[in-house]
């Protein structure tokens, strides 16, 4: 295992968080721009769900293919290649002439972004021992609230001022800056290449990962968790505008406040997972998260401060439960299997997210006044998936506790 000094470890984790930040902004900014897409491009919830899912399905397909080969390369080289692909494809999205071409561009961005997201956790798992992995995952997970604090409001502001294409251009520029920092500072990670050789073909490599019952339990947990979140998350902004009565210009403040609270809570939850146990902390946070799931999907017309309060509660608890689960899942694989294991895990995450968004889009609709209907039903479905997660978490065991 590559051993880093504490200072170098923090630097590498900060770089991985930066990769995750831009990857998340690239994916996430589509959702708060939903009202603009529906208005400018004339799309309905079902078409918008397809736009959101395009990224996740591209990421899922790419992650499956990556699982066959990712453990054959230096992690540094793999990251530089796929992150460069995310940079280019994001800029191509800004040039899309029609809605159909925008969907295609989002698929391509998802192909590279999904692998980059898997490599973030793979590299963290390779370099950080399990005893500190919860805190490391919390640091990387802080990229989500940072995206909500800085990336999404900035993207929304650019989108409101200059149109949605300006948002993609800005994300592409940010990716270019981070790619340069990765090239200069990301260390070579090759120790997984020096262990026991893989027998047979790449198919045998993936089969070795998939036939492990503990891996399958971890994958089922992750799929249920992503479904529980992404059946609700993509439609929060459209619902806040059409049903709760917010203006599109209020949305950046919503994400800013929720993201600021989550930036603090994600680090706390990460440290708690190391101290009290990943399963126990997930069950605490997961149980509490059912409240904002139901509150957000049933919110009536309210003032902006109340909507912000609901948003803070949702972001802190719904995103917070991912931290102990990801730390638990990361430790479920042996180091030599981790790249393939987490590539498959990324595919499952993305596929479950896409299916959740599409399923929710099919459940919901518009009434004659333009309000979204049946969002509350989606909330109940998300709660049922969360209850399944609470049971599944206790069935996943850590096999890499000594790394």
CATH class: Mainly Alpha
Q: How would you characterize the largest beta sheet?
A: 2 strands, antiparallel
Number-wise, the strands total 2
Alpha-beta classification: mainly alpha
CATH superfamily: MFS general substrate transporter like domains
Distance between the termini: 8 Å
Which sequence of SSEs, written as H and E, runs from N to C? HHHHHHHHHHHHHHHHEEH
Question: What is the overall silhouette?
Answer: globular
Radius of gyration: 20 Å
Helix segment tally? 17
Strand adjacency order, main sheet: 1-2
The count of domains is 1
Uncertain spans: none
Key phrases:
403 residues, two-stranded antiparallel sheet, globular, mainly alpha
């Amino acid at each position: 295992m590559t051993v880093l000094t504490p200072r170098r470890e923090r630097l590498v984790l900060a770089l991985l968080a930066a990769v995750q930040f831009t990857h998340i902004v690239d994916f996430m900014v589509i959702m708060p721009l939903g009202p603009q897409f529906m208005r400018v491009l004339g799309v309905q919830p079902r078409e918008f769900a397809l736009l959101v899912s395009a990224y996740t399905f591209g990421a899922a397909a790419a992650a499956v293919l990556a699982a066959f080969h990712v453990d054959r390369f230096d992690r540094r080289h793999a990251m530089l290649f796929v992150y460069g692909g995310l940079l280019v494809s994001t800029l191509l999205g800004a040039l899309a002439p029609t809605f159909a071409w925008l969907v295609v561009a989002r698929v391509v961005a998802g192909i590279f972004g999904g692998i980059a997201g898997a490599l973030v956790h793979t590299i963290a798992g390779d370099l950080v021992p399990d005893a500190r992995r919860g805190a490391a995952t919390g640091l990387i997970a802080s990229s989500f609230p940072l995206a909500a604090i800085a990336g999404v409001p900035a993207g929304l502001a650019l989108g409101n001022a200059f149109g949605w294409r300006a948002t993609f251009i800005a994300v592409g520029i940010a990716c270019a800056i981070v790619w340069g920092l990765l090239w200069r500072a990301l260390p070579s990670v090759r120790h997984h290449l020096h262990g026991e050789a893989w027998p047979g073909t790449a198919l045998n490599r993936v089969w070795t990962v998939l036939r492990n019952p503990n891996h399958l339990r971890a994958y089922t947990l992750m799929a249920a968790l992503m479904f529980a979140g992404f059946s609700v998350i993509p439609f929060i902004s459209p619902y806040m505008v059409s049903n709760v009565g917010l203006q599109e210009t209020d949305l950046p403040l919503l994400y800013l406040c929720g993201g600021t609270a989550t930036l603090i809570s994600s680090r706390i939850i990460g440290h708690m997972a190391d101290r009290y146990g990943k399963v126990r902390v997930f069950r605490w946070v997961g149980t509490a998260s059912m409240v904002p799931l139901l509150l957000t999907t049933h919110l009536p017309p309210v003032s902006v401060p109340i909507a912000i309060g609901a948003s803070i509660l949702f972001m802190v608890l719904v995103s917070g439960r991912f931290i102990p689960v990801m730390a638990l899942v990361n430790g479920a694989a042996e180091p030599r299997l981790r790249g393939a294991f987490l590539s498959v895990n990324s595919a499952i995450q993305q596929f479950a997210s896409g299916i959740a968004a599409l399923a929710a889009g099919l459940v919901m609709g518009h009434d004659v006044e333009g309000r979204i209907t049946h969002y509350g039903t989606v909330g109940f479905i998300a709660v049922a998936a969360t209850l399944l997660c609470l049971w599944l978490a206790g069935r996943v065991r850590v096999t890499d506790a000594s790394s």
